[in-house]
Amino acid sequence: MEFALEDQFSILNLVHEASWVVKVVMLLLLAASLVSWFIIAKKRRLIVRARSQADAFENEFWSGGDLSRLYQGLERKAGKSQGMAGIFEAGFREFSRIASRKDIQTEKLVESSRRAMRVAQTREVDRLEQSLATLATIGSTSPYVGLFGTVWGIMDAFIQLGNSTQTATLELVAPGIAEALIATAMGLFAAIPAVIFYNRYADQVNRIENRFDNFVEEFSTILERHSHSPRLGQ
After folding, report:
1. Sign (positive/negative) of CA torsion 208, 213, 216, 221?
2. How far from chain centre, in Å, is Cα 128?
């Protein structure tokens, strides 16, 4: 009798015996969990790479070398520059283009370069924030989807109990309630990692964005200081 009850209340058996609505809810939550972990792994690699690229570029930028050579080196590299290097490249390109004009005011020259860097920065931040909204959606909606499955399963269990000619006992209603509660557990299983990593990655992206902001202002100061120099160095 004990082994029969254990088999009856095993997770796989409860999932198998659940109503089709609860099964659909479970499948949706399983898919949401898989998508969530895929985004978590992908976003981790992206943010680690972005921080590493920013560290490497800042070391090179503040090494005291000729910024014209740094810009030319970035242009010669295969592929489009990303992160802080991409922001620098956009600003330097605009500075070089505008500086060739005669009687250009320093304020307009620097402001034009700053705008180009801000556009590049926005693109970089959008790239880093991509899929974070999906994580937030999974984290906020999964518990409610699981709760819907639970409510539906319990409702279905009591409807079957009401239509039964047997005496109402806990043993009779327990399997249906247990099946329904699995949906809530799966909703929490999908939501908790999504919420944790969304908050973690949103904070890390915000820190990287602050580094971009600081770099734009520092480079703008350098551009203003050297706006009349034939060669741009530090």
Report:
1. negative
2. 7
pLDDT-derived band at 16 (thresholds 50, 70, 90) equals low
Question: What is the residue type of 91?
Answer: G
Spatial contact of 224 and 106, defined as CB atoms under 8 Å apart: yes
pTM: 0.81
CA distances from 89 to 43, 81, 82, 212 (A): 25, 8, 9, 13
> pLDDT, tens digit, for every residue of 81-124?
889 999 999 999 988 888 777 666 778 888 989 999 999 999 99
Whole-angstrom Cα distance, residue 88 to residue 69? 12
Give the relative orientation of helices 20-61 and 67-76 as an angle to the nearest 10 degrees: 140
How far is residue 178's CA from residue 12's CA, in Å, rounded to a whole number?
12
SS (H, E, C) 132-182: HHHHHHHHHHHHHHHHHHHHHHHHHHHHHHHHCCCCCCHHHHHHHHHHHHH
Can you say whether residue 130 is alpha, beta or left, with left for phi > 0 and alpha for psi between -120 and 50 degrees?
Answer: beta
Q: pLDDT tens digits for 138-197?
A: 999 999 999 988 888 888 777 766 665 555 555 666 666 777 788 888 899 999 999 999
From 133, 132, 135, 153, select the one nearest 26 (Cα to Cα): 153
Residue recorded with tokens 């706006």:
227
Determine the Cα–Cα distance for residues 189 and 118; give it in Å rounded to an integer: 39
Could you give the CA distance from residue 227 to residue 201 in angstroms, rounded to a whole number? Answer: 38
